[in-house]
Amino acid sequence: MNNNAQVANRPTLLTSEDWWAIWIGALLITVTVTGLVTGVAGVGRWTIDPVAAFDGRVVPLAILGIGFTLLTTVAVVFMGGSLILHQAGFIPLFLLAVLAYFFANQTGIRAVGVGYAFWALMLGLIIANTVGTPGWLKPALRSELYIKAGLVLLGAEILFNRILNLGPPGLFVAWLVTPVVIVFMYRFGVRVLKIKSPSLVIIIAAATSVCGVSAAIATAAAVRAKKDELTLTVGMTLIFTVIMMVLMPLLIDSVGMDPIVGGAWIGGTVDATGAVVAAGAMLGEDAGQVAAVVKMIQNILIGVVAFLVAVYWVTSIEKSADSARPAASEIWTRFPKFILGFVGASLLFSFVLIPILGDETVDGIIDLTSDFRGWLFCIAFVSIGLESNFRTLANQIQGGRPLQLYLVGQTLNLVLTLLAAYLAFGGILFDPVL
């Protein structure tokens, strides 16, 4: 193919999945900021009577489902997909997401901490590996579009004024350990465990050291990883996130650790923002606040890691000895563009909306955008499960080496982050923050 044809075939602002993730995120932010949307439908909590989960919520959920269907259909059509086929598949896909929330909101299950992400992935995997994913459902399985749009919304939750409240101690914990763990895990996975796929190694490393699934998605986009590699990483991350969310607060209490130090430890190691908030809250309000802000600071690294990995992949991993030096345009081509939306949302909320509207109003807006983000993530996890086959995943296990990589890397992460949390929040390097 000649250069002119290559240029002509490159995705544009209206045909690229990354850019459509930004447009979707921007639209959802707009309708919440302007007050056009004042509430996001959800599944209620229930204990014994399952009907209670949907009491007075059926119509709002139907409206939400129709809205998501129309919004994603516009994106899919511009990207070359079929309007009818996407709509036919997306509606049952949304219903599966509702079912995932239904299971997650049972009070007993919720108390254990098994959230919607786990149930969404499990529902998809069960269907895909029993009866098989129906062909009419597959046109709607655009997991990366949904989760990238959700990540744009996640940027709105990273507020710089709150990050500054913890100042140097928070930055010390969140940013010191992360690059060390990423570099160690990559070298350990490739050189010691000899995992054949460098892309699998780097997305496991990013998921372990930064913030779980969100970092895995961004890094997978930067290295163009296979879907089954991403699925394996997501599965391991979700399982161990639940385990750590439950066990870490119990361990911190049992050994008499300072709750503030424990909160910082949780914030720097547990791989999902929701799980961090839940686990930190078990240690008290102050510890929960520290845990949440440390995780928020760490989430900033999603874009940084994705960019640096893209540069490294283009200049080192995919560069042969006799090939020309890659142009800067290739790095831009590889860079996950949706990260621009993630950063833009953070800057908008931090430096425009808070000064104009105030903290309380912005908190209300973020409540809505985070609800939209939750739905997009849930739909994405169902899609990932429906796209996955256990036989294909078995080929990625490679004698358990990816699991070994995760366990060794997470162990190092836990030890180093505990040390950093003690130095930063234990009154050693900095004055107490709370």
Provide key terms for this protein:
434 residues; mainly alpha; 20 helices; globular
**Number of DSSP E strands:** 0
Helix share bin: over 70%
Structural class by SSE content:
mainly alpha
- Rounded to the nearest angstrom, the distance between the terminal CA atoms is 61 Å
| Largest beta-sheet characterization | none
Q: Give the overall shape.
A: globular
Give the mean pLDDT: 88
Strand content: under 5%
Query: What is the number of domains?
Result: 1
Order of helices and strands: HHHHHHHHHHHHHHHHHHHH
Taking Cα atoms only, what radius of gyration do you get, to the nearest Å? 21 Å
What's the total helix number? Answer: 20
Q: Uncertain segments of ≥5 residues (pLDDT<50)? A: 1-9
Provide structural commentary.
The protein contains 20 helices and no strands. The protein has 434 residues and is mainly alpha-helical. It has one domain. α10 packs antiparallel against α11 (227-254). The chain is globular. It starts with a helix and ends in a 9-residue tail after the last helix. Residues 1-9 have low confidence and may be disordered.
How would you summarize the topology of this molecule?
Elements: H1 3-9, H2 17-33, H3 58-78, H4 83-104, H5 107-112, H6 116-128, H7 143-155, H8 160-192, H9 198-211, H10 213-223, H11 227-254, H12 259-269, H13 273-281, H14 285-299, H15 301-317, H16 328-334, H17 338-357, H18 359-386, H19 390-397, H20 401-425
Helix pairs in contact: 2-7, 2-17, 2-18, 3-4, 4-6, 4-18, 6-18, 7-17, 7-18, 8-9, 8-14, 8-20, 9-10, 9-11, 9-15, 9-20, 10-11, 10-15, 11-13, 11-19, 12-13, 12-14, 12-20, 13-14, 17-18
